[in-house]
Amino acid sequence: MLxxxxxxxxxxxxxxxxxxxxxxxxxxxxAVNALQALRGVALISAVTFMAExxxxxxxxxxxxxxxxFGLVPSxxxxxxxxxxxxxxxxGNSRVRHKLIEGAWMYRLQARPGAxxxxxxxxxxxxxxxxxxxxxxxxxxxxxxxxxxxxxxTVVTTAIAREMAAFMWDIARRTMxxx
Length: 178
Fold this sequence. Notes:
Strand content: 5-15%
Number of helices: 8
Order of helices and strands: HHHHEEHHHH
Radius of gyration: 17 Å
Distance between the termini: 49 Å
Largest sheet: 2 strands, antiparallel
């Protein structure tokens, strides 16, 4: 089992290296690099987001992007009554899983780590401001929802939904014009 774990780790490292080598040649590289300024978004998450979405400008609003990921609540409506249920899960599951995985980072205190500071310094001031606004807003929101007694999984899904909106904003600002 130890050998299988070593082989899997080596394979992940090798594939990540190939992805790192290919990103600079990609036309969406500026958006991939800018998305990594957000907490909870690393290379693989940013590449997955951009590869699955392509041109984010096709989504007029972040709500439409959230619906594409299946991160919006389901709704049961009859007449005057409206009941909301769990998320629809109707959209892109790969990106939804990456967003929820990254959203768990917002349970920690808002502060940039050493690795994120290095990435942030390479970004324009506009992206840095959005990344800090996202971090401070989402960490505060996470704590407030937990204090209200919400389940941590429900809170994390709500944070992932808002995180998608910040990613939409950054990607739209950094995508190359065609």
